[in-house]
Amino acid sequence: MNTTGELAGRVAVITGAGRGIGLAVARRFAQQGAIIIIADISDERGERASEELRAEGLSAHYLPLDVTDPDAVEGVVRRVASEWGRLDVWVNNAGLAEHGPSEALSPASWQRSIGIMLSGAFYGCQSAGRVMLALGRGSIINVASVNGLVAQAGRAAYCAAKAGTIRLTEVLAAEWAGRGVRVNAVAPSVFPTELIVSALQTGAATLDGYVGRTPARRLGELEELTGTFLFLASDAASYITGQTLRVDGGWVSDHYL
Amino acid sequence: MAELDGMLALVAGASRPHAATCVRALKRAGARLALVDHNEATIAELAGSLGQHDRVDTYPGNLSAASAAVVLKRIEERQGTVDILVTCAGEPTVAPSVELSGEDFAAALVSNTFHAFIWCQAVGRKMVAAGRGVIVNVTGLSGMGGWPGWLAQSASLGAIHNLTHTLATEWTRHGVRVNSLVPGIAERDLSDLLKTPEAPDRETVLRRIPSGRFATDDDLGKALIYLARPEASFISGEILRVDGAWDVWGRYYAVDPHAGKR
């Protein structure tokens, strides 16, 4: 285990870390010496991910979590606090990407997106925040999206949840900045996660579409994204709070054709 | 009675791209007009096209604070107190940023940002003292974010939006409302868009507009009157886009906004 890394000895919980961006962030944090708790709704994914990290010599544990249940979120926070005696970083990453015409968007689909990504992020911020406020320090990172900053047609619930997450981040930062707890958000564009790769394979999305929309004219690499999480989690960002940091190759800056 | 009946509207930069649209809308709403521009022939022609010359006057002006003060004094002597100020942005200089000359960049800051500043300050000073007045800065969509090749225009119009915000925070308490109006892409703007390296065709531009059509003069004119009239008395510091959802749309889509129309 890395005892000199930027997060050496820190305890970090990442929701939805069984795969995708969450798992990439978990690995990056663990490589910098953090003790990682992968909280996921799927036992299978969560166990596999934590075993994968442990096989790489990293410190990782799995706890089952449905982020839409505030009691379950509180339970994970209490368990981490009692087992490791600290909670340094909490990442609200759990999410899903449904889409379709808004005139046909079902209340159930709306509730699912808002429940997991917005309410789930709030429960995580609140429960983790209470422990961090008591400790007088902590870093919370919410996974937003470029779609929380600009509209994507056909993504009403997703965009609303992500935009809400950004404002939630700002409110909590304003409330807790004086008490040592930082709350920031990261807004990624498109990264080659399993979900994106499969969308490209099935033709649900096209590489040309993504690349053409991105001023960098390429997709991001996961390492380029996880570095930002590491920065915000670390002491290097100790005066940064309430920020939504875009890792988007210029996506949101481009308002042109 | 028309909405702006008898009010005096000063349009600064009256030869510029959206000025004629604004002038005609103000005229229709019953306003008297003072048209200011260094291009005297163009504004004389515009004034001539309106009829009722007793309600429209033109003034040559150039880009200095001293000139604005002198012109404003003449307007006040001839036509009375200015109730509404409209400043109009100029034509864009489009070039790749690595090639844009310092002179062209500075020129855009002067003709757009500085132009808005001198007129807002000259007229705003009087409005603040009088405890009433409306200012509308007409800008452009490139002022809302990054537009490749439009550096000078984008930077100079973005600066006007923050000028609008700041003046609103200072002057609204004195009864002076300050807003920006952002015109959407009209068909005649295509020639500007075509100057960019990628030279998009008409269909590409239309697909970029969620409304699926170009902005009309009427779209812009009605929004201007809405901001100018007394009923908008609590609206200040607003950047009002009349753009058919151009700027809110992130342009990547799960559902094609135009699909339902075809």
Secondary-structure blueprint:
The complex is a heterodimer of chains A (257) and B (262).
Chain A: E1 11-15, H1 20-31, E2 35-40, H2 43-55, E3 60-64, H3 70-84, E4 89-92, H4 107-135, E5 138-143, E6 151-153, H5 156-176, E7 181-188, H6 194-202, H7 207-213, H8 222-233, E8 244-247
Parallel strand pairs in A: 1-2, 1-4, 2-3, 4-5, 5-7, 7-8
Chain B: E1 8-12, H1 19-28, E2 32-37, H2 40-48, E3 56-60, H3 65-79, E4 84-88, H4 102-130, E5 133-138, H5 151-171, E6 176-183, H6 190-193, H7 202-208, H8 217-228, E7 239-242, E8 249-253
Parallel strand pairs in B: 1-2, 1-4, 2-3, 4-5, 5-6, 6-7
Q: Summarize model confidence as the mean pLDDT of chain B.
A: 93
CATH architectural arrangement of chain B? 3-Layer(aba) Sandwich
Number of domains of chain B: 1
Helix count of chain A equals: 8
Helix content of chain A: 40-55%
Tell me the helix content of chain B: 40-55%
Taking strands numbered 1, 2, ... along the chain, how are they ordered across the largest sheet of chain A?
Answer: 3-2-1-4-5-7-8
Number of domains of chain A: 1
CATH fold annotation of chain A: Rossmann fold
Mean pLDDT score of chain A, rounded? 96
Query: Rough shape of chain A?
Result: globular
State the end-to-end CA separation of chain B: 42 Å
Question: Summarize this, please?
Answer:
The complex is a heterodimer of chains A (257) and B (262). With 257 residues, chain A is an alpha/beta fold.
In words, what does this structure look like?
- The complex is a heterodimer of chains A (257) and B (262).
- By secondary structure, chain A is α/β, with parallel strands linked by helices.
- Chain A has a single domain, classed as 3-Layer(aba) Sandwich (Rossmann fold), CATH 3.40.50.
- Helix content of chain A is 46%, strand content 16%.
- Chain A is built from eight helices and eight strands.
- Chain A has helices at 20-31, 43-55, 70-84, 107-135, 156-176, 194-202, 207-213, 222-233; strands at 11-15, 35-40, 60-64, 89-92, 138-143, 151-153, 181-188, 244-247.
- Chain A has a seven-stranded parallel β-sheet, sandwiched between helices.
- The longest helix of chain A has 29 residues, at 107-135.
- The radius of gyration of chain A is 17 Å and the shape is globular.
- In chain B, 41% of the residues lie in helices and 17% in strands.
- Chain B is globular and about 55 Å long.
- The longest helix of chain B is centred in the middle third of the chain and has 29 residues, at 102-130.
- In chain B, helix 5 (151-171) links the parallel strand 5 (133-138) and strand 6.
- Chain B starts with 7 loop residues before the first strand and ends in a 9-residue tail after the last strand.
- Chain B has a seven-stranded parallel β-sheet, sandwiched between helices.
- Chain B has helices at 19-28, 40-48, 65-79, 102-130, 151-171, 190-193, 202-208, 217-228, and strands at 8-12, 32-37, 56-60, 84-88, 133-138, 176-183, 239-242, 249-253.
- The model of chain B has no long low-confidence stretch (mean pLDDT 93).
- Chain B has a single domain, classed as NAD(P)-binding Rossmann-like Domain (Rossmann fold, 3-Layer(aba) Sandwich), CATH 3.40.50.720.
- Chain B has 262 residues and is α/β, with parallel strands linked by helices.
- At the A-B interface, strand 6 and helix 7 of A face helix 7 and strand 8 of B.
